[in-house]
Amino acid sequence: MLNAGVLGAGHLGKIHLRLLNQSNKYNLVGFYDADEENGKKVEAEFGYKFFPTIDALIDAVDVVDIVTPTLSHYDCAKQAIAKGKHIFIEKPITNTVEEAEHIRELLAEHKLRGQVGHVERFNPAFLAVKDDIKAPMFIETHRLAEFNPRGTDVPVVLDLMIHDIDIILSIVKSKVKHVSASGVAVISDTPDIANARLEFENGCVANLTASRISLKKMRKARFFQKDAYISVDFLTKKCEVVKMKDAPEKPGDFDMILQNAEGVKKQIYFDNPEIADNNAILDELETFADAINNDTTPVVTLHDGTEALRVANQIINNF
């Protein structure tokens, strides 16, 4: 078992603490929080050991789980790497691309593993259809949330849309050639609602919408490709796969047949895979343990996290 410690005991930090504590791949050593009052409160309530300093925690573990505000990710990661520790770092990876690239260099230099917390990669609905998504040419995503003051210190692109940016970049095996975007600050000092259009060198186009001032929650992605339409609902953990194939010469009474202007007939059929129930956060943490133990590449690399941040910044710079 790997000895693990958590930096940051806020809302998400407490979830990480609970899951690391119940995992059979980690031994939760304890945590550090810059707010001593909060740290002692969490220690008293849950029994996790509160360390008085970052250094004391880092020294006691093999893996440092960084769940602090984004602005401190870089410094926390540098401290952990300098002491030879593997790092799991929440999204967005760092505040700037330059910081992210430096962290990647340091990890490689020290021959350590790192993973970024893009948790939607582990969403069971996405996992169920991931292998069906092949060379999509149009992608549409909507990620809408009700207003919550937590997270409003950064634009909605870094708060919400970055989830979908990472998903899209993991699927479209091509470089982004053009970005156009618009964003509006309604309640916060930074944009609360944003729309972006990503154009890839291979011709794929992705249209992304994110809002944190919606009256309803929505986390959906739709993928359109040759002979298939695939929908993923990250919120309800449901998916839909609609495919086309050449129509049989003698269709059955209930077969759905389409005929285009040229007279070509296609049969529409549903191919919805089974969705396995899981805890996505636990899975991302445990696959990171596997990558460390087996000396393999983590599912979401620091390169992935850096590229998601790079595109997110391109979107923000287009407002």
What does the radius of gyration come to? 22 Å
How many strands? 14
CATH class of the largest domain reads Alpha Beta
- Give the DSSP E fraction (strand runs of 2 or more residues): 25-35%
Strand order of the largest sheet: 7-8-9-6-10-11-12-14-13
- Number of helical segments with 4 or more residues: 9
Task: Kindly name the structural category.
Answer: alpha/beta
Mean of all residue-level pLDDT scores? 95
Number of domains: 2
Task: Indicate the overall shape.
Answer: globular
CATH third-tier fold name of the largest domain: Dihydrodipicolinate Reductase, domain 2
Q: Terminal Cα separation, in Å?
A: 46 Å
Helix proportion: 25-40%
**Largest sheet composition:** 9 strands, mixed
Task: Describe this protein with a few key phrases.
single chain; 319 residues; alpha/beta; Rossmann fold; Dihydrodipicolinate Reductase, domain 2; five-stranded parallel β-sheet; 9 helices; 33% helix
Short description:
The chain has 9 helices and 14 strands. By secondary structure, it is of the alpha/beta class.
Task: Give the helices and strands, then pairings.
Blueprint: E1 2-7, H1 11-22, E2 26-32, H2 36-46, H3 54-59, E3 63-66, H4 73-82, E4 86-90, H5 97-110, E5 114-117, H6 124-129, E6 138-144, H7 156-171, E7 176-184, E8 193-200, E9 205-211, E10 218-225, E11 228-233, E12 238-246, E13 256-259, E14 265-270, H8 280-294, H9 302-317
Parallel strand pairs: 1-2, 1-3, 3-4, 4-5, 6-9
Antiparallel strand pairs: 6-10, 7-8, 8-9, 10-11, 11-12, 12-14, 13-14
Helix pairs in contact: 4-5, 5-9, 7-9
